[in-house]
């Protein structure tokens, strides 16, 4: 018997394989359910560059219009750009057609509330329940609202970033930077930001075609081409984005890809030098953040994995900055979501403000005392339940945090085992001060 195609419905939205688990009928159901609760509009609709996004975006717009919404199409833009567009238009919400870092056969929908961030868990639960019920009542023909386009979203996003950072200091450095947008939505916005910051841009994979030339997750193993571009151009830094440009990874000036955990670490350290205040990250994010926050004398709050959880707690505690260790920087001055463009600006500002003029490799070396293992296991639900249940006894002397899988904190490091929100896999994280210690913790967790 063939294995059914996976469909993931979580706080991260809806994701599936196009034409298999993610069907036009399913997309329409969710568009109708989302729109009916926000009519008569306006609703922002955006997408990344995946070829299937044109078809699915049209279905989303049609469903929203069918229940009386006024649709504003902002086209192919980064996810954080779309979040900002919801607030700028004072919209009732938004739908972003994207599967973020998932492989090319996948697509999906991220749902945005009027608050300019992804739906909260209760809001998402309500939407999922509504999408399972009979179709919403459609408005008669004379109440249909015409859709319109808006091409200002990128310009507005870039302007917010330029207001947040020291543009003069960055421009004075005349940085040469390499950019790998994975032929995704970042390609339509990031070069504009970098040029506004006075950078010379050497681009690879910056055609917004949706043809992903590397693994869409911007992890070190996927960044060989960017590393080569950095070395050839003698660039100060290389920036790598995922297809919807909410994640950011770095390559230093020697051409060495850095852990995506360092993206958030560098951004948080720099921001806390400007303004001290609470920091919020998720349970799977490196202890680098604890070191940086401890040095600044501020509190770190940890949440379940998922942008919406981090953003909700940031709003509660009035956080200065937050993020997720997958390279997702959240700067509330710019937008309430992971934002690779804001991350780029913060990294450049950190380099421009470094008192000793140190290169990125030196900045990263000051932070990198932890070694993390990130691995995927394809366990059955029963295997996953067994491993999670056994963690408490295997690490009986550790501090247990439940609610999103199980995280165990120990003096020498930590492990976190959790089912993914976005893929049909279980993610296992282990971090310690040496690779050997991290490997021991990992093996003890999955034994």
Give an overview of the whole structure.
The chain has 447 residues and is α/β, with parallel strands linked by helices. It has three domains: 7-155, Alpha-D-Glucose-1,6-Bisphosphate, subunit A, domain 3 (Alpha-D-Glucose-1,6-Bisphosphate, Chain A, domain 3, 3-Layer(aba) Sandwich), CATH 3.40.120.10; 173-365, 3-Layer(aba) Sandwich (Alpha-D-Glucose-1,6-Bisphosphate, Chain A, domain 3); 371-446, Alpha-D-phosphohexomutase, C-terminal domain (TATA-Binding Protein, 2-Layer Sandwich). It is built from 15 helices and 20 strands. It has helices at 24-36, 52-66, 79-88, 121-132, 153-164, 167-173, 190-196, 224-233, 261-274, 288-296, 307-317, 340-353, 360-365, 381-394, 435-446, and strands spanning 7-10, 13-17, 43-47, 71-76, 93-97, 106-113, 148-149, 176-180, 200-204, 237-241, 248-251, 279-282, 300-303, 321-324, 328-330, 371-377, 399-402, 406-410, 413-419, 426-432. Strands 1-2-6-5-3-4-7 form a seven-stranded mixed beta sheet, sandwiched between helices. A five-stranded antiparallel beta sheet has the order 16-20-19-18-17, covered by helices on one side. Helix 2 (52-66) links the parallel strand 3 (43-47) and strand 4. Helix 3 (79-88) crosses helix 5. The longest helix is centred in the first third of the chain and has 15 residues, at 52-66. The chain is globular. The two termini are 30 Å apart.
Structural class, by secondary structure, is alpha/beta
Quaternary structure annotation: single chain
Content of β-strand: 15-25%
> Please, how many domains?
3
Mean pLDDT: 96
